[in-house]
Every structure is written in structure tokens, then in C-alpha cells.
Amino acid sequence: MGRKMETYYPRYFKTSKQSYFLFGPRGTGKSTFLKNNYPNALWIDLLKPDIFRTYSARPERIIELVRGNPDKKVIIVDEIQKVPELLSAVHSLIEEKKDKQFILTGSSARKLKQTGINLLAGRVLLKTFHPFLLSELNNNISLDTILKFGLLPIVISSASPKDTLEAYVSLYIKEEVQQESLIRNIGNFSRFLESISFSHGSILNISNVARECEIERKVVEGYIKILEDILLAFRLPVFSKRAKRAVIQHPKFYFFDTGVFQALRPKGPLDSPEEIGGAALEGLIIQQLKAWNAYNGNPYEIFFWHSRGGVEVDFILYGEDGIYAIEVKNTNRIRPADLRPLQSFAKDYPKSKKIFLYRGKEKILRNNILCIPCLQFLEKLIPGKPLTF
How many domains does the chain have? Predict the structure, then answer.
């Protein structure tokens, strides 16, 4: 992977004085952030083979290490899921060392769930780390470039983003899936990844995915759960609170980064660039909304809305401060038909604030709907500031 001269960009993530888990996919910059914010911490890097072997054999060694370094107030265990047995020892240390802070990073929650992440419930906060928010970057990166390569720091800082992205996806699958023995048949899983990439930004139909990749539905359900556990993808539920009309029940599916989606999505002469671009843009908006919401302390639940009549609004933010309905279109023009889903939603939820995001250059108010250029929306999406434009 080619590397440019690295620039450190301050992140919006807020640290805590309490011990916390920090979950986020590989390459999102967790370690870089922690090294910049905790330069004097005691580090245990489980990605290093010798360190991994040491703590796999004797997890309780961390107790000796912490007791042997009484001057170290912050202890960071990087990629804790590699040796989940460490959780019991960390639990003991938290009970014993009230003046110590433990930060446990992870790029997979699967093994931790299996071995009892709840062991530390109430004592350790759960926080998440994400690809860059566009508002964190101070360079003039184009929207087309973001849609093509995404916002992973490891890709942004690369001199060859395409090669880095492809290597990232390949290594992620190899290290997080194969090495952790999460699947038995890598061929089936590779076919599944190709097939599920067509579901990015769409209502998830597991039966169709299973049929397309010729794998049992139950196996496909397991594969999707693996993608969620290794933080590579997520499902977005449908909004049904106080519904005045029937809505569908199936969730939508997204990869966590639009560049990862682009790397996985096969492209051929019969594929429509507009279709792929639309899914990429929608995915970019939701990944940015999820990061903004997480760094704000998750004040909103995020959904999509889809009536049984086929009317859909891409994103619904529901919280104490109100309801936001957001529709995204990969178009430079605003057509009346583009605004109808938001108008339909407003009939059922008249108090909702309606936002239409598009590829044009003007911010206008039309039919009581605020129409905002996507790039302008993303540049002003800053944690600590409300969704007012």
C-alpha cells in the first residue's frame, strides 16, 4: 500500500475519564487517535504476534504488568477481541485499581459477546469510532472522490487509494473472518459478499441473496451477522412509531463505508453508473449521520420509512429534539416527484423537519422542504451542533 506523508486530523470523538470500550472497524484511526491523546499510556498491542502469544497463554499477566507500573494511570489494550479472556483480569483490576483508566479497543464484538462483554457492564462505557466525518477534514476533497474511495483514514492517507482499498477489504476478510475461524467455506463467503453488495442501500431480502449465491438462507443469515459483528456492515430498521399507515418490516442494509461498498460491488457493462452512484451517495450520508450521532452521544434513533404502498424516505432521525426526515437523490435537479416521499411522510408526521439532499449547488426552500447540496450538508455536520442549516 502506497503511503503519502501522513497528516494527523483532530477527531470529534470525545474521550472519557471513565474506562471504556472503543469499537470501530480496522483503519478508522482508533490507535492513531489514542496515541495522540494518551501519549504516556501503558500499551498492550495484541496485533503484535509476540504480545498476542504472551497474553493468550497467560491472560493474568496483565495484572502483573499493571501492578509493576504504578505510575501508569491509563492502560490501553488494542484489539481486545484477540484475547477475550483478558476481560476477567481487567474486571479484577478495575475493582482493585480505582485510580486507573482502561481503554479497550476492538474491531469485532463477536468473541467478546460470546465470552461475556456484560461482565464489565456499568464499569466500562461503550463508545464507537468511525471513518472521517467530512467536517473533520480541512482539505478540498471532491464529493466524487469520496463516493469512489470512502473516508477511511488509511485510504485517505494513501498515495494509491484504489490499491489500498482493495488490499484493505482483502486483509479485513482474511484477518477478521478467516483467521478467527468464523466461517468454514471462504468460497461461499466470497460469493455472498459479491451478492450482498447489490443490497447496499436497499431493503434486505435474505431469500434473494441466498438464491443468487446458491447458499442456504440460514447460512446467509449467519454471514450477515458476521459482517455486523466485525463492524463491516449494519442494518437500518424501518420507522413505525405511531404509524398511521401500514409499513414494511424488513430493514435496509449498508456497508459501514462507501469506499468499502465500491470495492466489493462488481461492475460490468450492464451496470448503471447512476444506480451505483446513488447507492454510494445514500451510504455516505448514513455513515456520516451515524458518526455524527455517535459523537453526540446518540441523541437520535435512526431509521428509514417505507409504506406498504411503496413510498420511501431514506432516513428518519427520531429523538427528544424532534423528527428529521431526510431524502437523498443523486441528481443535480429537484423534480416534483423527488419531494413527494417527504410530503407523504409529513402528512403522517406534520411536526417533522424535512430535508432533501441533492447534487446541485443551491440551498433553497421549496414546498416547506429545505433542499441542501450534499457537500454543504456534510461539511456542516459537526458534533455539538444541531441539524440546522
Answer: 2
Q: Examine residue 387 and state whether it is found in any structural domain, yes or no.
A: no
Final residue before a domain boundary, out of 68, 95, 128? 128
The C-alpha atoms of residue 75 and residue 73 are separated, in whole angstroms, by 7
CA 133 to chain centre: 11
Amino acid 312: pLDDT? 95
Q: Which residue has the cell 458518526?
A: 291
Could you tell me how far CA 144 lies from the centroid of its own chain?
20
State the average pLDDT over residues 228-242: 91
Q: What is the pLDDT of residues 249-306, one digit of tens each?
A: 899 999 999 999 999 998 876 676 778 899 999 999 999 999 999 999 999 999 999 9
Q: Could you tell me the sign of the dihedral formed by the alpha carbons of 153, 167, 200, 337, in that order?
A: positive
286 contacts 277 by C-beta, under 8 angstroms: no
Strand (E) or helix (H) holding 163: helix 161-172
Q: Looking at the structure, do residues 32 and 162 belong to the same domain, yes or no?
A: no
